[in-house]
């Protein structure tokens, strides 16, 4: 699917609904590799996934996509993690923000 590129984004997004977690992980990984901004909004919902590996895949995919539209959600999530003293996910969120800002020449503002 990655080799197919942007033409595979819509089928992949459709595949997220109702798929087992192991399939969602592969789909999210593929969406991140394709790096099409159409995947940004659907991926945001996985940033709070109970499955921590799935959540990590979503962060990585968003960092690869680099869509600045994700910044407000990520900034809010970062502050929630800091407030709850979840340093691991606060750091992951911060790293994703750094990647997106760097790709778009946007100053990091937490």
Write down the overall geometry. Answer: globular
Radius of gyration: 13 Å
- In DSSP terms (H or I, runs of 4 or more residues), the helix count works out at 6
Which structural class do you get from the secondary structure elements? mainly alpha
**Name of the CATH class:** Mainly Alpha
Mean of pLDDT: 94
Number of DSSP-assigned strands: 0
Strand content: under 5%
* Low-pLDDT sequence parts: none
**Distance between the first and last residues' Cα:** 35 Å
Biggest pleated-sheet summary: none
Helix/strand order: HHHHHH
| Count of individual domains | 1
- Return the CATH architecture: Alpha Horseshoe
Percentage of residues in helical conformation: 55-70%
Can you say what the CATH homologous superfamily is?
A: Leucine-rich Repeat Variant
Instruction: Please name the CATH topology.
Output: Leucine-rich Repeat Variant
List the helices and strands and how they pair.
Elements: H1 9-16, H2 21-34, H3 40-44, H4 52-65, H5 71-83, H6 87-103
Helix pairs in contact: 1-2, 2-4, 4-6, 5-6
């Amino acid at each position: 699917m990655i080799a197919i590129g942007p033409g595979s984004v819509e089928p992949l997004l459709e595949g997220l609904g109702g798929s087992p977690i192991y399939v969602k992980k592969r789909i999210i990984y593929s969406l991140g590799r394709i790096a099409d901004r159409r995947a940004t909004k659907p991926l945001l919902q996985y940033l709070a996934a109970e499955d921590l590996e799935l959540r990590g895949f979503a962060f990585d995919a968003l960092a690869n996509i680099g869509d600045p539209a994700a910044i407000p959600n990520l900034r809010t999530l970062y502050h929630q993690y800091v407030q709850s003293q979840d340093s691991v996910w606060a750091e992951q969120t911060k790293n994703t923000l750094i990647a997106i800002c760097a790709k778009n020449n946007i100053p990091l503002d937490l």
